[in-house]
Amino acid sequence: MKKFSIVIAGGGSTYTPGIVMMLLDNLDRFPIKTLKLYDNDEERQAALGKALDIVLKEKAPDIEFSYTTDPEEAFTNVDFCFAHIRTGKYKMRELDEKIPLKHGVVGQETCGPGGIAYGLRSIGDIIELIDIMEKYSPDCWMLNYSNPAAIVAEACRILRPNSRVLNICDMPVGTLRRMSQIIGKTPEDLDVRYFGLNHFGWWTSVKDKEGHEYLPEIRDYVSKHGYLTQIEVDTQHMDQSWQETHKKAKDLLAVEPRFLPNTYLKYYLYPDYVVKVEGSDPDYTRANEVMDGREKEVFSAAKTIVEKGTSEGSEFSIGSHATFIVDLARAIAFNTHERMVMIVENNGAIANFDDNAVVEVPCIVSSDGPEPLSQGNIPEFERALMYQQVTVEKLAVQAYIEGSYQKLWQALILSKTIPSAKVAKEILDDLIEANKEYWPELT
Ligand code: NAD
Ligand code: LMR
């Protein structure tokens, strides 16, 4: 089997060790010749790079491993770039969450004003990464799961329409894993129909390979327990705040009892609950939970491995939630025609929705990329919600490109998470101040 060369952009990410361990666990399906880590933060990159160097020498000495902050070195002679960068790091995520909360509005990484703020930071860096990739490895594919995926994908659609960039999110896969647990199956047994935007969608069918429909059974479970399951099925979304989110799916189902909801809809359908009841502590948000949890764990495991000179006894855990990345890379590399939920331009996949909207739907992925599967017409309620939200995303990207204050204000006004134009303006002015280093000047 051909062996592939990969660069992980955002090599200093808390997810990098889990993804590297997952790749090592999948070498029989996806053989690796070269693995490089690339980050623009030397300290973070070295901390994880040194530890992973030890891990690779112990577990897969045949793989040529390196880590760097030099774009040319990173992107020369690679087949795939797995991109998970966070422009502004947790310091800025914290502000994305805390600034809206100060105004009584949802403070979240990808939804509402926080997501818009993060989007305006991410666009420039992602476009730069694409350009670097195309300069040094013109045939390389970027599998991009940097957030906020909806805004990033819309920016790629407008600014780099012909680039080999595939945008994907792990939430549909993660929730399918929970669904499969509910009905005693594995995700590989199941095919779904799904429509929506990223972090804003609904499952309309969950069938096994024989064609048996499990939607009613799963709906029945979710109407009582949400997506909370007894067994640990998704190692990524296990913290307390995520348990609240899985549980809340019960109330999302009540709004549209026919379909199974994406958990992120809670920020749009129950923003008052999220802010007041669920316990959005304006001084301690998800960013703090991640910094005190995942980030500390990953970097202290790395430190221990480097100090001991071995990974024995202090191994990184395998990010098994991320095997979708291998499935996607295999689909491109081996033309597998894998069916995956991807973020793509609509072009008729949702029949009664704009052709040029970025949507999330099942696709067949081959070596030419994703081919969206038709999901037919969607109901009026979901269509209206989606139209409002996709316009937020489009206006945010236009605001970035044109440097338009007015358009960004309109984007915020349209977000279902924000109660009025006045509050939108107050939040916007605070976000501009906080993002001076990252955003284009808005006039
Ligand atoms: P993190 O802050 O730990 O890691 C991000 C890394 O990116 C940092 O080391 C940072 O220095 C680096 N970086 C920032 N800008 C860069 C640039 N221009 N070039 C190279 N490196 C750069 O964040 P994390 O929590 O590990 O998350 C990483 C990313 O993955 C985020 O965008 C997050 O939202 C995303 N994510 C996506 C999914 C999904 O399925 N779509 C799931 C989980 C996380
Ligand atoms: C988090 O765990 O909060 C994020 O980094 C990723 C996610 O899926 O929300």
Description:
The chain is of the alpha/beta class and 443 residues long. 49% of the residues lie in helices and 16% in strands. Strands 3-2-1-4-5-6 form a 6-stranded parallel beta sheet, with helices on both faces. The chain has a 3-stranded antiparallel beta sheet with strand order 7-8-9. Strands 10-11-12 form a 3-stranded antiparallel beta sheet. Helix 1 links the parallel strand 1 (4-9) and strand 2. Helix 4 runs antiparallel to helix 16 (421-434). The structure holds nicotinamide-adenine-dinucleotide (NAD) and (2S)-2-hydroxybutanedioic acid (LMR). Residues 194-417 form the Glycosyl hydrolase family 4 C-terminal domain. It comes from Salinibacillus aidingensis. This is 6-phospho-alpha-glucosidase.
Can I get a quick summary?
The protein is an alpha/beta fold and 443 residues long. The chain is 49% helix and 16% strand.
Globular, elongated, flat, extended or rod-shaped: what is the shape? globular
Distinct ligands: nicotinamide-adenine-dinucleotide, (2S)-2-hydroxybutanedioic acid
Arithmetic mean of pLDDT: 96
Q: How far from one another are the termini?
A: 54 Å
Reading side by side through the largest sheet, how are the strands ordered? 3-2-1-4-5-6
Q: In percent, how helical is the residue content?
A: 40-55%
Low-confidence stretches: none
Radius of gyration: 21 Å
N-to-C SSE series? EHEHEHEHHEHEHEEHHEHHHHEEEHHH
Query: Per DSSP, what share of the residues sits in E-state strands of 2 or more residues?
Result: 15-25%
Number of H- or I-type helical stretches: 16
SS-based class: alpha/beta
Pfam families: Glyco_hydro_4 (PF02056), Glyco_hydro_4C (PF11975)
InterPro entries: GlycHydrolase_4_CS, Glyco_hydro_4, Glyco_hydro_4_C, Lactate_DH/Glyco_Ohase_4_C, NAD(P)-bd_dom_sf
Cofactor: NAD(+)
Organism: Salinibacillus aidingensis
